[in-house]
Design brief:
Layout (H helix, E strand, L loop, with lengths): L1 H28 L4 E4 L6 H13 L4 E4 L8 H7 L2 H4 L2 E3 L5 H10 L3 E5 L6 E2 L9 E5 L8 H4 L4 E4 L11 H17 L2
Parallel strand pairs: 1-2, 1-6, 2-3, 4-6, 4-7, 5-7
Helix pairs in contact: 2-3, 2-7
GO molecular function: RNA binding; tRNA (guanine(18)-2'-O)-methyltransferase activity
Catalytic activity: guanosine(18) in tRNA + S-adenosyl-L-methionine = 2'-O-methylguanosine(18) in tRNA + S-adenosyl-L-homocysteine + H(+)
Protein name: tRNA (guanosine(18)-2'-O)-methyltransferase TARBP1
């Protein structure tokens, strides 16, 4: 009798695992072809906010420098479980260039969100379907050696006296603009 009960429980567990796997596959299949590279960021509220934004708008992946922050209480508070539903990969700062090279070979356009002399205003830029978006460090922005790898730099037109947005906010605006363009196609 005991054995029959255990087999029944095993069967139920298997069924629930299968339906969870199917649900996850469905979620993954409906993701956009947008990879956000946040490996240069180190402030937890920014990373957690970006995880939440990426999950809400179904980015395919978020790259961060150190995956151990996913267990941080502050991270979890701000991300509201986004990390459970969003593929998050660890790309240490030292591996960013290698990662971008690999994605370029896979047919992705590599974009940076940065104010440079050649930046294209966000509202005039047409995003390729397969996009990798690189965000800069909290204060210094994107380092020059990575800028050289980018296919384009985009910037958010700004009109106030303060000429910079928080990196999570600017990342979110860019992710939304990518999403808006994909939706209207």
């Amino acid at each position: 009798f005991m054995e029959a009960e255990m087999e029944k429980e095993d069967e139920l567990l298997n069924q629930s695992l299968q339906s969870r796997t199917l649900a996850m596959e469905k979620v993954r299949a409906s993701r956009q072809h947008l990879i956000l590279v946040a490996s240069l960021l180190d402030r937890i509220p920014n990373l957690a906010g970006l995880a939440r934004t990426c999950e809400v708008f179904k980015a395919s992946t978020l790259a961060i420098a150190d995956a151990s922050i996913l267990r941080d209480k502050q991270f979890q508070l701000i991300s509201v479980t986004a990390e459970k539903w969003l593929p998050i990969i660890e790309v240490p700062v030292s591996s960013v260039k290698h990662f971008l090279d690999k994605k370029k070979r896979e047919g992705f356009s590599i974009l940076g969100l940065e104010q440079t002399a050649n930046s294209i205003p966000l509202d005039r830029y047409i995003f390729p379907k397969k996009t990798v978006l690189v965000l800069g460090r909290e204060k210094e922005g994107i380092p020059v050696d990575i800028i050289h790898m980018l296919d384009a730099c985009i910037e958010i037109p700004q009109f106030g006296v303060v000429r910079s947005l928080n990196v999570h906010v600017s990342g979110a605006i860019a992710v939304w603009e990518y999403t808006r363009q994909q939706r209207s196609q």
